[in-house]
């Protein structure tokens, strides 16, 4: 850390990876606890390195300086973090002289051991904007998934049974299975469609298997609904992913102008269904249709924002399985968001944005108005 970098940070507002503190207190147990909470929260939030700057007013970012600096401060900070975080968060402390004032900076390095946990309380912390808060269960699960420790799709659904999978759908999209029941189960296990509980010697569908091949996956994954809303009227489309997309496509053909680029909309919705956070059971994938815009809203969690797409994908098993099915020409995955942008270019831009505080990923497409005008003009000319 140097003065140039410090002045750059002071130009920014507090956020997911940046926090300003007036004092650096490490004497009281309550002070140590608050310090470690902030370190863990910043470490658990993606986006590269994070910083806590001490000796600065958080609202004005005016440098006040540190009047008291604990003895052997670097060593004490490392010890406090090592004794209170699991796994330990990698940090560094720098003391900088700014004119006649001293500023302390804790650099929290990008960690590949997320999620970090506070040992004393067992809690996981995250940043919600500029504040530190406890992570809820689906946010913890998303962090585990992000770093390959847990995946929603591969978790066995123990409330279900193999009879909840559609054998017909599996055969249609995967091919004829071995006639031997044991071999069938072995193949489905290898493919990740079912999982075996070795203790009970019992097989269960995985959540990914239910999403792709379930008869009624919403019986076990109620958040796996595609909600379509127009003029204040909402409908819910259920079924497995393949049936859901086919039903959506059929309904859109009835609701949209004939010249509306349906394939572009279907691709955006396909991506939303595949890459949504299924740990988040409080929201549906939502399609809002109006004259001005069609907005596709996807439930995500703020801790994944800022992570490059090339680094990880939400629901990688679901994505890869659909890619394989596409190559077998049993299912059309889509044409890509970039191609979707091209299809809508003549009628306006495609807006793609993340809304961290709301926990959603949103794609806004041109609405119905322009396409209706074109159709009406064609009718008049004819």
TrEMBL record:
This is DNA binding domain-containing protein. It holds the Pfam family SLFN_AlbA_2. Gene3D superfamilies: 3.30.565.60, Schlafen, AAA domain (3.30.950.30). It comes from the Bacteria. Residues 15-136 form the Schlafen AlbA-2 domain.
